[in-house]
Structures are given as C-alpha cells and as structure tokens.
Amino acid sequence: MQEHRRYCSQLLVLLVLFIISLYGVPILGKNGNGLIEVDVGVILDVDHMVGKVSQTCISMALEDFYALNQNHSTTRIVLHKRDSKGDVLDAASAGKSQVQKRFTIFFLLVVGYLPYMVYRSLINYRDLTSIEPPFAAIDLLKNVQVQAILGPQISSQAEFVIDIGNKTQVPIISQATSPSLSPANNPYFIRGAQNGSSQVESLTAIVQAFGWREVVLIYEDTNYGRGIVPFLTNSFLGISTQVRYQSVLSLSASDDHILEELYKLKTMQTRVFVMHMSPFLASRFFTKVKQAEMMNKGYAWIITVGLTSLLDYMDPTVINSMQGVIGVKPYVPKTNELENFKVRWRKRFRQENPDVDKFEMNVFGLWAYDSATALAMAVGRSGIGVSKFKKPVAKENLTDLATIGISEMGPRLLQSLQNIEFNGLSGKFHLLKGQLQPSSFQIVNVIGKGDREIGFWTRKYGISKNLSLPGSKDYLPNKDDLGAIIWPGESNVVPKGWEMPAGETKLRVGVPIKNGFSEFVSVERDSQTNVVIATGFCIDVFKEVIDHYLPYAVPYEFLPFETSDGKSAGSYYDLVYQIFLGLKFCVHLQNYDAVVGDVTILSNRSRFVDFTLPYTESGVAMIVPFEDDDRKNAWIFMKPLKMDLWLTTGFFFVFTGFVVWVIEHRVNEEFRGPLGKQVGMIFWFSFSTLVFAHKEKLINNLSRFVVIVWIFVVLVLTSSYTASLTSMLTVQKLKPSITDTRDLIQRKEYVGYPQDSFVEGLLKNKAFDTSKLKKYSTLEQYDEALSKGSKNGGVAAIFEELPYIKLFLSNPKYCAKYTMVGPIYNTAGSGFAFPKGSPLVLDISRAVLNVTGQDVMTRIKEKWLGEGATCVEQDGAKVISDSLTLNSFKGLFIVAAVASFSALILFLSIFLYENWDTVASHDSSIREKLIAMAKTFDEEKDNSSDTSKRKKPHKRRYGSACNSNS
Prior knowledge:
By secondary structure, the chain is α/β, with parallel strands linked by helices. The protein is built from 33 helices and 30 strands. The strands form 7 sheets. An 8-stranded mixed sheet has the order 2-1-3-4-5-15-14-13, with helices on both faces. The chain has an 8-stranded mixed sheet with strand order 7-6-8-9-10-16-17-18, with helices on both faces. Strands 27-26-28-25-29 form a 5-stranded mixed sheet, with helices on both faces. Strand 17 and strand 18 (about 460-465) form a beta hairpin. It is elongated and about 145 Å long.
C-alpha cells in the first residue's frame, strides 16, 4: 500500500513538472538577455480600493525605475501577485492567543494545503489571484521561491506573513501601520509606511491646543485598532488629559449595537472623541453618530491617519455626516514629479479597473510606489543572484512550512533595505532600522464634499498654519496657530469639551447645613416655593466665579446635605464622599456633581475628589483668653525688670561705691572715720546716685570719672524702668494665657473644636486626651466656654481655622477678651470639590485666581466677614509690656565695669609706686609687708588743697629760727 502511495506521488510530481514546462515557467534565474530576474511576491487585497491603487503603483514604480536605470541595472524584479481576499483568517481566529493563532495556521496548512496543491498543479500559478495570506505566502515561497514580499497592507494579515518571513529569512515589506507589529521584534519586517504611533503627538497637540481635559477613545477591535491605544493614553496623560472612557467596536457590530454605544457616550459629560477606525466601520459609525444627534454644536471629533487619508473614497452621505470633524494625515509635498505621476496613474488605473468610477491617489499608494522603488534599489545594490533556499535535513512528519527552507539571499537583501534613503513621491523616504521615518502631518477639517487644510504639525515646530517657520520658534500648542475651523453643527465656537449629561439640565451643587458661622454658608427654603436659597461668603465666591469668570455658561442648582427633617446629614467628609459615590447610599441622601462651602482641602478628601485652587487663607490656630490684669498685683513694681537685671544692677551699685571709696579713702575726709561709717558710705554714695542726691565732694579725678560713667548708666536704667512701669500701670496687658499646645496637654486642660470638623482628628493626632475634647458650633458657645475656663466646665483654648478665628475676633464683644495663638497647623485653605478628573476643575481654578486678585473679593469679604479686626479696646495696645531683661543693658554694664576696673587698677598702680620701698624691702616678711601697706592705705594723705596748710608751720618754724638766731 505504501509503495502504491509513493508511486502515485511520483506520478503527481511528474505531471506538475510537465504542466509547468508547457506554460513556459522559467527554471533558471536569467532570461535571454542575460538579466537576472529576481522573483518578488505581492500580496494585496484587490477588492479594497487601497489594494487596487497600490497594485497599479507598484507596477508603475518598477517600470519607472528600470526605465531610468536600464543602462546600469543587471537585475530585474519579476512580480508574482496574489489576492489576499480580505481578512478572513483573522476573523476566524479573533480573540485567540498567539499560540492558538499559530495552531490555527498550522491546522489550515496541513488540512487545506494538500488538496490545494492538487488544484494548483492543474493551473498556471502565475494567474492564481485568490489565496488567503498564509497560503499565498507559502505558495510564493515554496513554489516561486520569491526573495521578498510586498504586502499585505492589513495589519492582521501582515502578522501571519511576517511570522513566515522571519522563519524563512525573506524580507516582508508591508504598509501595515499597527504599532503592535515592530521591526525590532521581527527582523525581516520592513514597514513601508509610517508607524501608527507616529501620529500620536499630533493628536495630543490638537487636544492640548484647545485645552480639553477629557477625551473618549473609540476604536475597532482589531490589531490595527488596539495597537495605538496605549500610546494615545500615555501621551494624553503627559498633558494632564484623562481618557475618560474607551469604546471598542467589533467589525461585525450591528447598527443597533453602534447606536446603543453612542447613546451611552451621550450620557457622559465628555464631548471630545478621538476615533481610530478603518473606513469600512467608520462609514457605518458616523452615519449612526448623525442619527444619534452627536454631530451637533458642542461636540468635537478627531479622526486618525487611516481614515483621514481615505476620505476621498467614502460615500457622500457619510461625508455629509462627518461635517466639522478634524483629522490628521501625513503631509505629502507637492512636486512636479508627483503631479506628472498622478496624470499617468489615472490613465493606467482606468485601463486596469474600468469598472471603478471613483478613484483618487492616496498616501498608501505613494508609500507602495516608494517601497517598490526602495526594493528595486536594494536588489540592485545587494548584487543578489539566482534565488536559492537551503532545504532542511530530510525528516519524517515535516510540516509544509518547514519544507520551504531558508533563503540564502534574504539577509543580504535585508541589509540593503534597512537604511535606504531617497526623495520619493511621498516625500523623504527614509528606512531606518526597517522603519519608515515619520514626517510632517497635515491637519484638516471635513467641510463640504471633502477636507480643507487648517494647519500642520511637525515635531520641531508643533502646530502651525504653514511649514515656513523661523528656526527660533518655541513650540507651545495654541489653537490660534490653526486656521478657521467649522465645528459640528456648523458652529465656529470652540467646544469646551464637556457638557452636562443628557437628562441633567443643571450642575447639582451640594452645600452643608451649618448651625453656626452662617456668614460662610447658610441654607434656607422659600416658604412658598420650597426653593433652596443658599447665601454666605462661600456661595457668593462660587456665584461670582461661575457667573462672571467662566468662558462658558454652567447652569447649577444648590442642594442641601440634609436629612428628611432638615438637619445636617453628616460631616464635611461625608458630604465630599457623596461626589465619589455617584449614587444614593441612603434613602434621604443624594449624590452631587460638586460641593460648595467652607470645605477645607485635605489629603484624605483629595483621594475621592478634585479640589479647585483655594479661595481662603489656610491654617489652624488657638483662641485663648488674655491673662488677668497685673495692675492689681502688689508687687507690680518689681515686674519692669527681670530678676537677672535686678541682681546685676544691685551688684554694680555696690561695686561702684566700693571703687569710689577705695580711691577717695586716703584723701577725702568724708570717706574716712569709723568702720561702720565707711561701710555705710559705700552703700549710701552709689545708691544716692539713683536720684542724684549725693552731696559728698569728690577730690580724686579717677573717682570723678567712675561716677560720671555710672550716673549715665543710672540715668538709662531709671528712664527704662519708669517707662516700663508706666506702661504696666496705664495700659492693659494683652498677653495670651496659653502660648503652647504642650502646656495644654501637660496641664490636662479641656480644649474645644468646631463641630463636624477635621480639627477633631488633628487634636487626636497631637496626643490630646479624647476625654478632654469638647465641640462647639457658634460664636456664643465659644465665648461661654472660654469665659468659664477649663476648671469651671469650659475650656482653656479653642482650636479653629483662621477664617473663623478672624471672624470671631473682629466682633467687638470678643476681641478685648481673647486673642489668637498660632497658626499651629497649616492647611491648603478652602476650595470647591468636583469629581475626579472633572474638566471644570482647571477652568474654575483659573477663575478663582482672577476673582481673588480683584476688588470684587474685597467687597465679598466686607459684606460677609466685615472689614477685619477693628476692636477699639485692642487698638494701640496689642504690644505686650514684657519685663526688661539683662540683654538689653549688657553694653551699659560693660562700659561701667571697664571704667571702674580701669580707675581701680590705675589707683593701685600709683599707690604701689609711691610705697615701693616697703614692697621691695627684704627685711620684712610678706605678712609684715601687707600689714605695713594696709596701715599706709588707712593713713590720711595730704591732698593738694592741704599743702599750703602744711607749708605754713614750716615757715613759722623757719622764721622763729631766724628770730632766735638774730
């Protein structure tokens, strides 16, 4: 039986060879003219317009190339065309893993290829035009032994062919744009088109130029559709734009399913849609968009290269439903060569496709032309010869793919292709590492029967109205750099990018219910209409921002956060959390689109919502009473000077009196006498200088110098003491009773905080005893608690935010009794809360900055919070009269000390000099010398005024002697 099968196989092979020889299939690689023929496969979907256009372009490219290089080229490319017939295999394996897809290919090859080979042996393979991509590729490689393959252009088809090319080392030159197909991961893949991810920056620049903060991605569920999504998402994230939703549609989606998805999108706030689809699905999709009334004013639609480049092939009814759409497509420079080629191409295309009425050149056809040209150049440069494949060692059970072998010329041809560069019809055609390098993009607006150019995008200059820009231009995306745009609904107003969801006519703004501090937020209901009336500082700021500083209208209504009986439904945290919930978690509670009130921006709240920039100052401080009045203190006269200053002053009084006594003791009768008198003189003289009542006459100039300096010191001290004491006796001391939170904790004092505030958690974090915390809600309760004090059922301090403290202290009833200490904790201030990613946050934050910098903010503050602290009792008395310290008089005491010590040292030096004989005597011991010096110091010394008195007795004695002698 086996011999019979082998015999049948041999007969089949002989029959195939005989048929091939009859049809004149060349076996050798050279023709009669000596030119080397290089077989190249072409796999295109000729039922698709892009395939038809590319087929004609590829043929014309080789004809043009060899016509210009007929004297230099020794090789000729022979094309072997196959029709891929759509994307049947990908549809059959959709949703499968890579392993499952390869198993599907293997199964189809094993099961379907043997019958196909029998059929193929009966016809000329050159005329075969209806083979699926894997079959076509295997046929071209096994039976034709092509050295390269042009196509296919559909990404899902190209994936299988590229995998076969990697295994056989045959270059695959495809216009597949999906980023999931990478030349880096497929060494024998040459992308003859721009990578789909290259358009991402231009799309992002458009969104950034118009300031849109949310977009919705819509794409088809294929490799082509999914490949670009990660790049778009990351790029939008870089400009702080959030992809709010991703809508994925199958190629086989029904019209009802498309409408259902569109109505879902319509209920969302986002009105900017970035769509990435093939023309087949996009035609059906935009027809339904028009039907769903989503091509009206306020919507923005952006389409990608794959669709924008093929608008000319779409039905007029579809184009009519796309009016106002913005798209990007590769920019093709207009040249004479291109215009001449288009004329020749139209004539050729009409001859080859007489049944096609509407046809236009597209960028994919130009890329196909340039790819074929690049391949012809690479074949000529590489010097490849007759095609040969290295066959595998004969083994049993080999698959049909394994029997093909490996191309010997493929690596050489690949090397010539990878970095080729020339000026083609599509512009600069530069293949770098197997990837066509991107160029500029043209931005168009769908108007009328087609598109209209509104600008360009380049990597160097960004968005611009033209390409002739100076090299020094700094790129900042700006909508003014684009031409006039007609938006959907024939509107010339730029869509703001979002709207209230369908069915919601107003922004639902939640406001808190407060028992106190109604100056910030107050909610009432009209007795007749039951309409909510919200007033207060926060409400007025919000109204000013929304009504006058936003560039567009936002209708809103205030909804109180209350229970069925009109009371507060929870804390501020609960109110903010309602935005995050997005649904009712209690029967009487409701979710909100925003929260307006005195809501402090905190980290734990920002996890659930986004806050605008703050419109109030930040921080938490203490309200504490002033200390008791010291004017009733019997010892208040001691308070002007600190104890260290008192002691230092007393020491200098004694020391100065001692120095003066030492200097005056020998020459001044008033400083001599009994010991008690002399000690009393030391204290009396220095202290008498306080009131300048000293009557003792000083004789020595050294003592006079010491006293002059000391009197100046006394003058400054007495003046300062008088001023400080006067201040204490005449001005009320506004000194806080508590200055440090640690004192409150150590003393275990009771402290207060506002009800339903985050301050409670702050105090617990600062190690306050929970049992010592009391909550209050009104100014009157604050006053009552602080007046009683911690020991009488009240509190020693109340912790509150700065805006409320300033409101409290601006009241004349309270400003004379209490003061603020701190801030002890910094916060970000109060802001308006919105859902995460809300596009309103940025615009309202910008508006808040405008409001806070205008006079209108001052008027709102004066209306609700007053003009600030204007307490008469505190006016001019806020400086606390503290006691004077030694540090304030260090300089004076240093001068006095230097003067006294200098005079004392100089006096002792003179005294020792006058009694040097006694000091230098060798006959006496040290003790005897000290006693002698002490006696000498205690003896009275004649001063200059007594010299005449001592001289007169000498004259009498001299006269008596004379008289006696006479």
